[in-house]
Amino acid sequence: MPQIESAEAQQQLEQTLEHFPDRRASLIPLLQEIQTTFYYLPEPALRRVARKLRMTLPEVYQVATFYRCFSLKPRGKHLLQVCLGTACHVRGAPRVMDRVLTDLKLSQPGTTPDCQFTVLGVRCVGCCGLAPVVRVDNNTHPHMSQAKVKGMLRKYAQPAGEAPKMQAEAEGESDAAAEVG
Length: 181
Ligand code: FES
Hints:
The chain has 181 residues and is α+β, with helices and mostly antiparallel strands. It has two domains: 7-66, Orthogonal Bundle (Arc Repressor Mutant, subunit A); 78-153, 3-Layer(aba) Sandwich (Glutaredoxin), CATH 3.40.30.10. Helix content is 40%, strand content 10%. It is elongated, with a radius of gyration of 17 Å. The relative contact order is 0.17.
């Protein structure tokens, strides 16, 4: 189970909680804020949210697991999705994925140790005419090639020291909801 790592992280969580009234209606915006801060929803934070909003933990989990924008597993700051749907596949998506993994020093899709990126292979993202496609957060990178990967990653790379405040779990976690089997 992910643990709140530091007093600083707990303080950050408490400061986030203070901005929201103790009402059930606060649940989704509060979870969004926690997701933005820590890049996922740590269980200790969900327990704290349940106490604050006087909800049961299962009620909080029900919402946290319903929306795909929320992750219960540690994610990187940037969600990088390589489309492996048919159109992208035939235009070289597997080679793009290989280069992404190589450049991020990952052996398989998952989260980088510095928590900057979580890489997933996904099914068609709905813009086959731009294949092969990579999505990073809300941005679509069209007509990707191995040669374009480094420049794309550089746009999102952050200086060291901006990792999330809660520790990521083991490298290689996957998002079953989005990952191509
Ligand atoms: S198959 Fe990749 S966008 Fe449709």
